[in-house]
């Protein structure tokens, strides 16, 4: 079992992280760490709501107040389509078209788009370094960068840094400058915590809300205006995640990828059977949306 458990890591080590970035990302996100990638990307999106220019737009659309679960499922499924099939596949191009059409309606700065893209690269890597059943291989880190760089290009994002460390430095600097408290941060943060809690039975929801706060770092807590959870909450969460990681070391490697397979999403039961990426996505912006949030023709 010991040698078999690391067979995918060894396969990744033999691939080129730039040329083979899609294959490496599919192996890592779909077979080695699917649960971890899902959780890490949830928190990556959550992290972007600490930027007031992002939270202001989300609050203005009303989507997080009215349809938080659908917005979560749309984002999750569309990104999974691109990863599972490739950004240049028919389904991948269709998913990108849906994403670009949705973003194209709004006045979103290139830097905000670039920052969101950076969280998709580095937040899962940070998560795996803390909670993965093994550390991410250097090729997995570089492949994630090259994969999302190509996705970002197809989303029309400009000035994506050419190097892994350069992009990481951009992310750190953007957070230092833009993570400040705002009422819309707090509002969108509360809707998101409520969404996470709603996935559990009612009697567990207060504990889930507390647990989520325990997972947030100090800059996020400040930007959301959330009170910190007791230290034991974070310690308990860390213990549980490290215990899970240790246990997974004794499991056999996953034989089939779960990318693009989402039987538990709550908006589109049974996806992807009977659905296309074009079936996903938010409705047209409300006529009441302030003009400042709309992209000018």
Automatic annotation (TrEMBL):
GO molecular function, one term: oxidoreductase activity
Protein name: ER-bound oxygenase mpaB/mpaB'/Rubber oxygenase catalytic domain-containing protein
Record domain ER-bound oxygenase mpaB/mpaB'/Rubber oxygenase catalytic: where: 60-235
Entries under Pfam families matching the protein: MPAB_Lcp_cat
Residues covered by region (Disordered): 270-297
UniProt-listed InterPro entries: MPAB, MPAB/Lcp_cat_dom
Top-level lineage group: Bacteria
């Amino acid at each position: 079992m010991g040698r078999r458990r690391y067979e995918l890591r060894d396969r990744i080590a033999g691939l080129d992280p730039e040329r083979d970035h899609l294959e490496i990302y599919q192996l890592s996100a779909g077979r080695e760490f699917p649960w971890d990638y899902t959780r890490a990307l949830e928190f990556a999106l959550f992290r972007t709501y600490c930027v007031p220019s992002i939270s202001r737009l989300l609050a203005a659309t009303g989507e997080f107040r009215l349809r938080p679960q659908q917005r979560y499922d749309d984002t999750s499924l569309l990104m999974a389509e691109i990863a599972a099939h490739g950004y240049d596949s028919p389904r991948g191009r269709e998913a990108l078209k849906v994403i670009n059409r949705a973003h194209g309606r709004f006045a979103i700065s290139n830097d905000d788009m670039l920052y969101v893209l950076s969280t998709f690269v580095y937040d899962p890597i940070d998560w795996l370094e803390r909670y993965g059943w093994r550390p991410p291989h250097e090729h997995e880190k570089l492949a994630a960068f090259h994969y999302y760089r190509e996705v970002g290009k197809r989303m029309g994002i400009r000035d994506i840094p050419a190097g892994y460390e350069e992009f990481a430095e951009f992310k750190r600097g953007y957070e230092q400058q833009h993570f400040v408290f705002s009422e819309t941060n707090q509002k969108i943060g509360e809707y998101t915590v409520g969404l996470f809690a709603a996935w559990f039975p009612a009697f567990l929801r207060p504990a889930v809300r507390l647990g989520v706060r325990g997972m947030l770092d100090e800059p996020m807590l400040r930007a959301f205006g959330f009170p910190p959870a007791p230290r034991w909450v974070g310690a308990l969460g860390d213990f549980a995640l490290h215990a899970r990681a240790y246990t997974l070391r004794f499991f056999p490697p996953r034989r089939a990828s779960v990318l693009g397979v989402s039987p538990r999403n709550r908006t589109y039961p049974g996806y992807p059977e009977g659905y296309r990426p074009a079936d996903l996505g938010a409705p047209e912006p409300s006529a009441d949306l302030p003009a400042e949030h709309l992209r000018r023709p």
